[in-house]
Amino acid sequence: MGGILGLLVFVLDIIAIVDVLKSSMDTGKKALWIILVLVLPVVGMVLYFLIGKKT
User: What is the pTM of this model?
Assistant: First the structure.
């Protein structure tokens, strides 16, 4: 079960990173969001989809 959950988090993190790269944010904000998603995979992804997409 842990492997499936880990794979799901990995896929959702990739989706979040691709979404960040496609967004119209400036480069600095993109870099910060990508670092946050990479350092804190679950928390960073959730924060991006709740807060980051609005900016």
Answer: 0.88
The dihedrals phi and psi of 44, each to the nearest 5 degrees, come to -60, -40
- pLDDT, tens digit (0-9, with 9 covering 90-100), for 36-55: 999 999 999 999 999 988 76
Q: Which domain covers residue 7, as residue numbers?
A: 2-54
DSSP 3-state helix, strand, coil percentages of the chain (rounded to 5)? 85, 0, 15
Handedness of CA 35, 22, 11, 8 (dihedral sign): positive
In the chain, the number of structural domains is 1
**Which residues are within 8 A (CB) of 30 and not within 5 positions of it... i.e. 6 or more apart?**
20, 21, 23
